[in-house]
Amino acid sequence: MTTDNIIISVKGLEKHFDEGKLKALRGVDADIRRGEVVVVIGPSGSGKSTFLRCLNLLETPTKGTVTVENVNITDPKVNINKHREKMGMVFQHFNLFPHMTILKNMTLAPMKLLKKSKQEAEEKAMNLLKRVGLADRANAYPSQLSGGQKQRIAIVRALCMEPQVMLFDEPTSALDPEMVGEVLDVMKQLAMEGMTMVVVTHEMGFAREVADRVIFMDEGKIVEEGTPDQIFSSPQQQRTKDFLNKVL
Amino acid sequence: MSAVTESISIFEQWWLQIEPAVQANTLNFWQFLYKEIYLNVIKDDRWLQYLKGLGVTLEVSFYAILVGLVLGTLLAILRLPQVQNMTANGKSFLSGLGVWVVRGLSKLAGLYINIMRGTPLLLQVLIINFGIFGSISIDKVIVGVIACGLNSAAYVAEIVRGGIMSVEKGQTEAGRSLGLSGVRTMIYIILPQAAKSALPAMCNEFISLIKETSILSYIALTELTKAGDYIRSRTFSAFTPYIVSGLLYLLVVLTLTWLIGKLERRLRNSDH
């Protein structure tokens, strides 16, 4: 593969908290290619969420670089807001705006940032809502929805910005078990349409089925990466084996 | 107007009826009560003086609340942790200078809040009236608005800051992850939610402020308390004028409480 296909390139990424007392990331190198679905797995505290949050600079890296479409976004001179427009993010706790209707949640950013007219933004939002089967909830408030519905809305809210990459931070961890499926279905559909995705999750079934590449992290480092088959069927590292033994 | 004059003439007739008893000092309880009301409210159109005083109190309170809200919100934003610990965006001289200025303002805001909350309002009123505006002839209403507004801002700042900090961190992250700038995230996402959770405390502050404007009688502003006091100096009734003023304060405060309660219920409805 040529470097042109690389959309996000991470080099020597380190993130320390509490003035270096806690080292969440201890040197991570990774490339994300266009159209690729990368699933990051690992035990709690392994740094996988921190890694994901560094990709759109919700966490400022202590060391190392994150390069998105050939621009080093860790350079303070870069307008990070412009880059975040192209990188959608879905959170564990949905983080919908509770004081706005679903439609307003989805049209706020496109209207303010992409300068779309209200009509244009609402049309796009309604189309996306139809795709996830929630068009009838357009004028509801987030508190009137179930967890699974909220997370589906969070996904399409990010899609309204027409992002190049979608980042998912444990999108099903806060859901009741019977609602996990509906969210994963939306994500699978998105993956099939060719969206570049980086997914931090504990859903091993999803990783095995949808991922192009699985990254196993532990103690702030990438321990092993490969195709789902390589990681789940014949892991090379002892720590990967131990982890998979516990979760599978 | 004719209805007013008519009812006043009725009051005058009642007064004539009990006047002999007043002279003879043989009033029963109801006659005594009526004498007090007649002397302190009706005679010489004194009720107009209460109403004028009430008008001044409302005027000062309204503008002071506005000053307090605007200045208080600015102070609150300057006191937020993310502003206090702001770091330079790049190494350019300008952004370095900008951060230095913002951090300086943040420190000043903290100092301001401590001083305004740590010293008596009366003292602040006296300093502003005699110290700052001592040599200039200026409307006392303006002095009152400035003094009460500057004082209220310190309390509003802490209320707004509390409101902002009560909004989950995830809300900021969601806004920023969509590409909204820090300022836009604050305006569209954080402040509306902060305002809602700060509303009960804010209602308290408004009520306090309205009542505290009574301190302005100290600098001879004829607001509601001073109006009552002035009437006492004419009628020598020690209770009635103050009670009339007090009832009017109560009326204003209860109306405000009712209005804010309504607003709160409506905000609650909007997101269940």
Description:
The complex is a heterodimer of chains A (248) and B (272). Chain A is 37% helix and 25% strand. Chain A has helices at residues 48-55, 80-85, 102-113, 118-131, 147-159, 177-192, 204-210, 228-233, 238-247, and strands at 6-17, 22-33, 37-41, 63-68, 71-72, 87-90, 165-169, 196-200, 213-218, 221-226. Chain A has a 6-stranded mixed beta sheet with strand order 6-7-8-3-9-10, sandwiched between helices. In chain A, strands 2-1-4-5 form a 4-stranded antiparallel beta sheet, covered by helices on one side. In chain A, helix 3 packs parallel to helix 5. Chain B has 11 helices and no strands. Chain B has helices at residues 2-24, 29-42, 46-78, 81-84, 93-118, 121-132, 140-166, 169-177, 182-212, 224-235, 240-271. Chains A and B meet through helix 2, strand 6, helix 3 and helix 5 of A and helix 8 and helix 9 of B.
